[in-house]
Amino acid sequence: MENHIVLPHDHGKGINHILEKMPSNEVFSNVADVFGLINDATRLKILVLLFHSEECVCNIAAAIDMSAPAVSHHLRVLRQAGIIRARRDGKETYYTLADTNIAHLLHHAVDDMFDIKCEECTRK
Description:
By secondary structure, the chain is mainly alpha-helical. It contains 7 helices and 3 strands. It has a single domain, classed as Arc Repressor Mutant, subunit A (Orthogonal Bundle). It has a 3-stranded antiparallel β-sheet with strand order 1-3-2. The radius of gyration is 19 Å and the shape is elongated.
């Protein structure tokens, strides 16, 4: 389906080529949801840790000075969104970055914002 929008004014700036490629409202909503995930300082801290390591809930909780149940809640939200993944080893569950385009994009964007040099990224 082609999106044809007639603009009320022609300012000569040529936004029509952008409008022709404009994603659907559903795509914008999905992207906004992803940005909403990192709109929480706690989740952002957790992500910075998990971008660079695989950790259990107890270590994450200690690293960010928060209770394990509170951290588990944030991990569940991030996991349901497909940003992180979990791996069980005996009674322990370990979390790390998911191998998805969105997760990797967030990893690079956040590292750039905080000026973090990721050893894994520089090796690729």
